[in-house]
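Can't attach files on this board, so I'm pasting raw text. These are the components:
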Amino acid sequence: AQKVTQAQTEISVVEKEDVTLDCVYETRDTTYYLFWYKQPPSGELVFLIRRNSFDEQNEISGRYSWNFQKSTSSFNFTITASQVVDSAVYFCALSEKRSSYDKVIFGPGTSLSVIP
Amino acid sequence: DVKVTQSSRYLVKRTGEKVFLECVQDMDHENMFWYRQDPGLGLRLIYFSYDVKMKEKGDIPEGYSVSREKKERFSLILESASTNQTSMYLCASRGTGTLAYEQYFGPGTRLTVT
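---
Top answer:
Structure tokens for the assembled complex are below.
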């Protein structure tokens, strides 16, 4: 069964702390994509990153970094030196091929609060 | 920039009413989606469409129907609204092709059914 788990429901950190959001997925496919989305208080989900199943290189974008490990089926997201603007709900998602469409499964989300 | 717009940010309806949620995208995307978002459950797919007049059921289609008469517009219909359909509804679009394409989301419609 296809599944995405984000075990942390809510996290609070003080500004400038580092924080890691966990994502664990289950899939039987060898070809798939993983995504992270951010949902700020305004409500609109914003795409952050994609990673395909054949590329396990970690990625860094400014204060954001992602650690993809196939061996543990994890795709964790770290924010370094967090800021108040990072407060949002973050969703991890898995995309797999089905016969006529690409199915996307979202995790339950992690609500991050960055306290000034 | 891709723009996905939804007809209302907030909506209050009564039980039994027929409700229309409209979604429009301006990037000529083939794929459009309707999700509902509930605390602790993430986003759950209600219906999606991969072409005009084409639709497929998602994970929770019961109580909903959809319409896609034009490529840019995808409507979600609650035939007879019930209180358990109180939720945040999100529309998304995506281009055709590979699994790799991200989805673009609208701002959401928070529907309350009383």
